[in-house]
Specification:
This protein is an alpha/beta fold. It is about 40% helix and about 20% strand. It has two domains: about 120 residues, Response regulator (Rossmann fold), CATH 3.40.50.2300; about 100 residues, Arc Repressor Mutant, subunit A, CATH 1.10.10. The protein has eight helices and twelve strands. The strands form three sheets. It has a five-stranded parallel sheet with strand order 2-1-3-4-5, sandwiched between helices. Helix 4 links the parallel strand 4 and strand 5. Helix 2 runs parallel beside helix 3. It is elongated, with a radius of gyration of 18 Å. It starts with a strand and ends in a 6-residue tail after the last strand.
């Protein structure tokens, strides 16, 4: 998943990005409102984490202008302002949730994962599919009939991204953008390798055919979600 973190305190920005990267996220960062506005309009993120008190353009204005421009990715507001009026202002601007500083990183990670999951239409952190396949987005593990699969971080991230768009065709370039830093070689065949590995690990007997290659367009997860 690719996220944007907007924070003008350098130490906190570095801390947040390092923590999210350790959890397997691809992170873009910004330290002022004008730059963040441009990045949010230019790129399609899975989540943005935005401080309210930013130079050049405050976080509430940034979020409001993203929404006006129909940028609908989830937004988590960070604020040092504890007044309920400031929280309401952020939510009314289009933010989906907020956290008041100081905070525990575990709370930020939990809220971020919940927002990404809900934006894909899943209420539970466990995404269940036919064939006994369970993607646990909280523990970042995949199980088949209660047996954990051995997946690399990038294999898991690719599967989770496809699962959040189950039934939709995802292009190779889109998958690359949401898994890797911007300077990643997009002509690489790494994505094809990940998809081939995932097919074998999810369906070793070749019976459920979980991932379809749509020629010239990308990949589609064809598993059926279970209620």
């Amino acid at each position: 998943m690719r996220i944007l973190i907007v924070e003008d305190e350098p130490d906190l920005l570095d801390y947040l990005s390092s923590q999210f990267e350790a959890e397997g996220f691809a992170c873009d960062t910004s330290s002022d409102g004008e730059d963040a506005l441009f990045m949010g309009e230019e790129y399609n993120y899975d989540l943005a984490i935005v401080d309210i008190g930013l130079p050049k353009l405050d976080g509430i204005q940034v979020v409001s202008r993203w929404r006006t421009a129909n940028r609908n990715f989830p937004v988590l507001i960070l604020t040092a302002r504890g007044r309920w009026q400031d929280k309401v202002a952020g939510l009314e601007a289009g933010a989906d949730d907020y956290v008041v500083k100081p905070f525990q990183i575990e709370e930020i990670l939990a809220r971020a994962n919940a927002l990404i999951r809900r934006s894909a239409g899943y209420a539970s952190p466990e995404l269940r599919f036919n064939g006994g396949i369970v993607i646990d987005s909280r523990a970042k593990v995949v199980r088949i009939a209660d047996t954990p699969l051995e997946l690399t971080t990038f294999e898991y991230n690719a599967l989770e991204y496809l699962a959040h768009r189950c039934g939709q065709t995802v292009s190779k370039s889109e998958l690359t953008e949401h898994l890797y830093d911007q300077d990643f070689d997009r002509d690489s065949n790494v994505i094809e390798v990940f998809i081939a590995r995932l097919r074998k690990k999810l369906d070793p007997e070749g019976t459920i055919k979980p991932i379809t290659t749509v020629r010239g367009r990308g990949y589609r997860l064809d598993l059926q979600p279970e209620e």
